[in-house]
Design brief:
By secondary structure, the protein is an alpha+beta fold. It has helices spanning about 1-10, 45-55; strands at about 25-30, 35-40, 60-65, 70-75. It has one domain (about 20-75). About 30% of the residues lie in helices and about 30% in strands. Strand 3 and strand 4 (about 70-75) form a beta hairpin. The longest helix is centred in the middle third of the chain and has 15 residues, at about 45-55.
């Protein structure tokens, strides 16, 4: 049984098949700078959350990926 678990321990956890895309939600404050609000791992959930928060707070929200590239911009 130990010999079966050894290859699993040697498998790198940063393999592309195991990596998840990360979506960062940011809002724009009154001075025009973007502040981090939260992080999601599902694009649909990130968009629904950004749309709901933008409507509730009256602030602009944007969704960027883990590398900082713009995915979507949501206005109230």
């Amino acid at each position: 049984m130990r010999f079966l678990l050894l290859p699993l321990l040697l498998l790198p956890l940063t393999a592309p098949a195991l990596a998840q895309m990360k979506y960062v939600l940011q809002y724009q404050d009154q001075f025009g700078s973007w502040k981090r609000w939260g992080e999601k791992h599902n694009e649909g959930d990130a968009y629904r959350t950004a749309k709901t928060r933008a409507r509730a707070t009256g602030k602009r929200f944007r969704i960027v990926d883990g590398e900082g590239s713009l995915i979507d911009l949501v206005t109230p």
